[in-house]
Amino acid sequence: MIRFTPPPAPKEIEAFIGKVVTDLGATFSGVLVNVGRKLGLYQAMAELGACSSATLAEATGVRERYVREWLANQAAGGYVTYDPENQTYRLPPAQALVLAVEHSPIFMASAFEVAASFWLDEEKIVETFRSGDGLGWHAHNHRLFCGTESFFRTGYRAHLVSEWLPALGGVVERLKRGVKVADIGCGHGASTILMAQAFPESRFLGLDYHEASIATARQRAAEQGVTENIAFEVKSATQFDGRDYDLVCFMDCLHDLGDPVGALARCRAALKPDGKVLLVEPYAGDRLEENLNPIGRMYYAASAMACTPNSLSQPVALGLGAQAGEERLRKVAREAGFANLRRAAQTPVNLILELTP
After folding, report:
1. Domains defined for the chain, CATH in brackets
2. Of all helices (H) and strands (E), which one includes residue 75?
3. Nearest to 95, CA basis, from 82, 114, 113
4. Cβ atoms within 10 A of the Cβ of 223, count?
5. pTM to 2 decimals?
6. What is the tens place of the pLDDT at every residue in 27-68?
């Protein structure tokens, strides 16, 4: 029997129970965020303004009794507001930008698909921890792929073309003239397509080892009419064998690789002498204590269940993790033969690094 000396104070127990209850409420309610997104409840509320459960049910074709319970949950969590005098609910503008407006620079609702995928993969994750083996990206539930695409696409839309690429000295001018660009670990091609749309004179190649993701990337490009200056190939980062590239991008993926040093070395060989690498990574400090915050908590969770297992499933199995930090990334870049690593920009969730030979 475990005994604690001295025993925890009642206030300490009460405070931690409160924290757990808060987390349980958030976990349960995350499912209802997905429900609200898929049924169009948030979008309808953004259009309706103040509404009753009956009004929202009529607008969305959902049974009122379920809408009533959903609204009560959302009000309890602060996702919507409730007016007790008029018995109406409202989705405030700030919440609407995060939950209802898909093209908003802060849209986050579909990121709950990632959480759903982790729950669906729980047995695989438990076995991965127990065995010590890796778990490849391809082995996860498909909801991880679409959720990750949407979560990252929001940031790419807001920053990639307007801020991150301009932060790399001279790159935008080259892109406008027409150059070759590789997007390594492109997934569903969100970043590749955005760049190809913005710079029609340049040619873009998206690479990913996951065949299903490349098929989706090709479909996304076709749906958006981006076909003339873009191509996608099923190929791992360490199989990249291009030449004379002005720019190579690793968008939120280097830390997932089993051999990031080998991948960057391949990339260096593919660059022109004055070429550059755009490395986008999750924001992290260099020391653990710098990352003990809500963003770090989110990224460490994703790292434990997806990023690190994917790395450990591949040759070398370096296991950088999603919170590697700038100094650790700098060491990897130097081992790959890059002379310079510069922080070009940052957001609350991303480090944007420029690598040059």
Report:
1. 10-101 (1.10.10.10), 112-356 (3.40.50.150)
2. helix 64-76
3. 82
4. 9
5. 0.93
6. 999 999 999 999 999 999 999 999 999 999 999 999 999 999
